[in-house]
Design brief:
Radius of gyration: 21 Å
Structural class: mainly alpha
Helix content: 55-70%
Shape: elongated
Mean pLDDT: 84
Largest sheet: none
Number of strands: 0
Number of helices: 2
Strand content: under 5%
Low-confidence stretches: none
Distance between the termini: 59 Å
C-alpha cells in the first residue's frame, strides 16, 4: 500500500483548510445573494415560474 514519504505540517494542513472554508463561505454568500434577488424580483436571469409548470 502506498504511503506518503513525509508528514504534512500542521501549518500547511491548516492553510489548506482555511482556503477551503474561505471558498465555501464565498459560495454561500453568492447563493444567499442570488436567493434574495429572486425573492425581491430583481434577478437578472430567466428561470421557470410556477405558472409555466401548470400550462
Amino acid at each position: 500500500m502506498a504511503v506518503p514519504k513525509k508528514k504534512t505540517s500542521k501549518a500547511k494542513r491548516d492553510q489548506r483548510r482555511a482556503n477551503w472554508k474561505r471558498k465555501a463561505t464565498l459560495e454561500a454568500k453568492k447563493a444567499l445573494s442570488l436567493g434574495k434577488s429572486v425573492l425581491t424580483g430583481r434577478s437578472s436571469f430567466v428561470y421557470p415560474s410556477p405558472e409555466d409548470d401548470e400550462e
